[in-house]
Amino acid sequence: MRKSGVLVAVAALAAALVPGTASFAAPPAKKVFEYTFDSAAAGVVADVTGKNHALTLQGAWDASSGINSGAVSFAHPSYGNSPAKSDLNPGSSEFAVTAVFRVGDLSGLGDTPNIVQKGFFNDPGQWKMQLNHSTGAVQCRFKGSSGAMLVTSPVTGVDDGGWHTAVCWRTSSQLGVTVDGVRTPVSAKVGAISTTRPLRVGGKSLSATSDQFVGVLDYLSFAVGVKAETVSRKSAPS
Questions:
Q1: Pick the CATH number of 26-233 from 3.40.50.720, 2.60.120.200, 3.50.50.60, 3.40.640.10
Q2: pLDDT score recorded for residue 41
Q3: CA–CA separation, 83 vs 70, rounded Å?
Q4: Within 10 A of 175 (CB to CB), how many other CB atoms are there?
């Protein structure tokens, strides 16, 4: 009996050491950055996670009022920038980005205002939250090693000047967008997402064709790992 027990233990150890014979649970989600925009002293918004993704504001931005405390208003041209770091690339992991914002009528614009993005359209990888200027809907773009997908929320008219909460998210088998609690999933996979671009908030550049977001941001966070959508939304003002 003792010999049999030893053999079982050895077999279990061998299975754990041989690739493909043991399964490991994916790590639970953690926030990678979180901006409350309560203070923008000297044009810098602190990353309250402590992971050193401070956001530097440039251009025509201004301090504003949020739901419960401070916020930042973006006008043309302006954006926030945080240098590229590896933990901003979700790779093949689940992830989510949450934004709490308000914006006025978008119908006169000719482009899609960008709330937040990592990577540009033609880059090999991108995750992005934008607004459709024709319908006032939130859109999420995911681009990875296996292709790209744009997911559009059925909730329209978020350009009504009121506060809205939007989440772009990916699970192991789905991509999706959630706007004011309305969740829109799509069964699709785009592969690993990675780009060397910096994080951009409110616009992609200070040029005339910057996909400028002209509105107020009260909260922004990014989480990677299992149940990232829930973790990313935690602490968002409402």
A1: 2.60.120.200
A2: 86
A3: 24
A4: 21
